[in-house]
Amino acid sequence: MRHVFLLACMTAATSLHLAACAQPMNQPESQSAPVAGKVSDMAAFERYIATRPTPAQFRAHYPDVLLVLPGDMATKELRMDHSRYFAQLDADGRITGGRFQ
To answer: Is 39 helix (H, G, I), strand (E, B) or coil?
Structure first.
């Protein structure tokens, strides 16, 4: 009976340890609620870009901002409302900067 109890405790401890290890790493801090609409707080936007998000993370965090990646086709319209962001990517495919246009 003692061996069964020890085995159950070891299994539970291992499960908790593995669950803690499975947490996402290197995620941007601002994984909170998505920011709706156009970008109006430029300081917060620049802090978010400094975390080097992936395009998928960017789209989840700023769902109303059109993200244009290198090689994507885009119209030549000029938007002055911070609703279209032309991103620059690093070798890992993370956003390192860019410009609104």
So the answer is: coil
Name residues whose C-beta falls within 8 Å of residue 86's C-beta, 6 or more positions apart in sequence. Answer: 68, 74, 98, 99, 100, 101
Distance CA 30, CA 62 (A): 11
**pTM given for the model:** 0.66
**Phi first, then psi: what are they for 79, rounded to 5°?**
-105, 125
Tens digit of each residue's pLDDT (9 = 90 or more) over 44-69: 999 999 999 999 999 999 999 999 99
Question: Quick one: pLDDT at residue 39?
Answer: 94
Cβ neighbours of 85 (radius 10 Å): 21
- The burial class, CB within 10 Å (0-12 / 13-18 / 19+), for 5 is exposed
Residue with tokens 């802090």: 47
